[in-house]
Amino acid sequence: MVGSFVTMKIEYFHASHYGNGAMIAEEFKKQMEAREVKVDVHHVRDMKPNEIPS
Length: 54
Fold this sequence. Notes:
Elements: E1 9-14, H1 20-33, E2 38-43
Parallel strand pairs: 1-2
């Protein structure tokens, strides 16, 4: 299609124990959102398998 595009969305799951992985995930989110890519960051302990976005 001419003149249309698909918005990319990323679900980013991390298992940070000391916070370093969470910091990287947030920086990744910031960098990608500057490129108009939506990023949702989740810690694996907060997610249940049936709640994982598809």
